[in-house]
From TrEMBL, chains A, B:
InterPro entries, alphabetized: Acyl_CoA_acyltransferase, Bact_Acetyltransf, GNAT_dom
Annotated ranges, domain N-acetyltransferase: 5-153
Organism (species): Rossellomorea oryzaecorticis
Pfam families (alphabetical): Acetyltransf_1
Domain of life: Bacteria
The protein's name in its UniProt record: GNAT family N-acetyltransferase
Length: 153, 153
């Protein structure tokens, strides 16, 4: 039996381990910069996330090792008769644990957290280049009803 | 020449006009409830949006009439070397002005606002049932690189 995964909020001293995971990814390696010291922009972003009650940066840990990260944003909307939504973004698992079900546990945890926060919907977008991710999320109950459109500024 | 459109933040007394617009829509009429008095849930959602510095509910007005609404959410992320994104959601125009370019002006305004707030990306999802909306956003420079996945709770 595999060791249990524990979830907790990220702290400032976790940012290094998080960026390492973000950069260790087929798309992430092109756009992240894992240097020593880390670019200051990562720490500034962490502080902005940490200061916002409607954003939670969550770590999955096995024993004391960080093996996964995701960000959950809670947003109030007027649509659907006034409701809250949870948006999951930046989901990554350490390459050392991929294929062992950690991702499934992370998303299931995020869905429970969204229920606790009173959300009526959980949403995410996934890059069409990530074919496995689409199947992964469909298996967990997400439905690709929408086009996810982006514009870089 | 058409009257200019002015943009401003929504106030509590605008919620009635906003919900009327949300309900006057092929998908919205199924899921919204425009009654007198309005369901309390709309006012609660408005208060939550209004209290959140990272959410802006924006109205497009022609003279004093509200002709469009949209919500812009600003979110800090660790990804892309620590960055802010703007998410546009709940875009509606009054049926009396559709096809007159108000939607284009609204999205252009939102993109400028995202730049002012230092965002590196603007994103939105659009229901695949709204065929015209996909073309509309593509014409404005959005690229449908992602699947937009939803799970109702």
């Amino acid at each position: 039996m595999k060791d249990a995964i524990a979830f907790r909020r990220a702290r400032k001293q976790d940012v290094d381990a998080i960026v390492k995971m973000l950069a260790d990814d087929v798309l992430g390696k092109e756009r992240e910069r894992y240097t020593n010291p880390l670019p200051e922009s990562y720490l500034q972003a962490f502080q902005a996330i940490d200061a916002d009650l409607n954003n939670e940066l969550v770590l999955a840990c096995r024993e004391s090792e960080v093996i996964g990260v995701m960000q959950i944003t809670f947003t109030p909307y007027l649509t659907h008769q006034g409701s809250w939504r949870a948006t999951i973004e930046g989901v990554r698992t350490s390459s050392s644990v991929r294929g062992q079900g950690a991702g499934t546990q992370m998303i299931e945890w995020a869905v429970e957290r969204a229920k606790e926060r009173g959300c009526s919907l959980v949403q995410l977008t996934t890059d069409k280049q990530r074919k496995d991710a689409l199947r992964f999320y469909e298996k967990l109950g997400f439905i690709p009803t929408h086009e996810g459109m982006k514009m870089k500024l």
